[in-house]
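Chapter review: from sequence to fold.
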Amino acid sequence: MTTADSTTGSTASPSYWEPLWADGRRYRRPDEAEKQLMAEHLGPGRNRPALDIGSGDGAPARHLHHELGYRTTGIDCAPSAIALAAAHDTDTDTDTGPGSGPAWQCLDFTTDDLSTLAESAYTLITCRLVYRWMDDKPAFLDRVRRLLAPGGTFRVVTEVAGRRTATHPALLGLGIPAADAELLTTGWSVVRTADLDVLRCYALRP
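The token string follows.
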């Protein structure tokens, strides 16, 4: 990932992400250590609704759906990402058969009408490698809170500033600064964190 310049506009917009997905850009998938943390922080889904914001190729949403048992919807503002995620479910057999994976919806979480989602509230909302790219983080978090069911969990995975060493200069800006981390964690009654190399995983509850 790289930061936007004056020609790409908002890093939260379809105009920024669609060309990257369409041109074959792919991003870090959850490894076994991260999946283990998901199980510890989230517990069994029991068919409760989950929303994965910025679902990309769908790997995290599929894990929530098939392995943890949530009834998951993955949303992304890039049509190419949604097409890639949906094609995986069509082409791949699972324990419950082809086509039985998460629901996929092309939707810009920052600007689109959230009433088009299948659920009015979600037990779990996740965003992985997404929070850093939100231009208006307070507005993004307000939208999350409105969709999160009472007692639900908001799970965020993001890089943290200062964790990378001796790397390409373009990658050094991927971590969120302390002010954005404080904004993310303010106002929740429960804040759980765990570190995985350059990533920090948050489990936040109202």
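Two observations follow directly from the output. The longest helix spans residues 79-91. The first strand starts at residue 49 and ends at 53.
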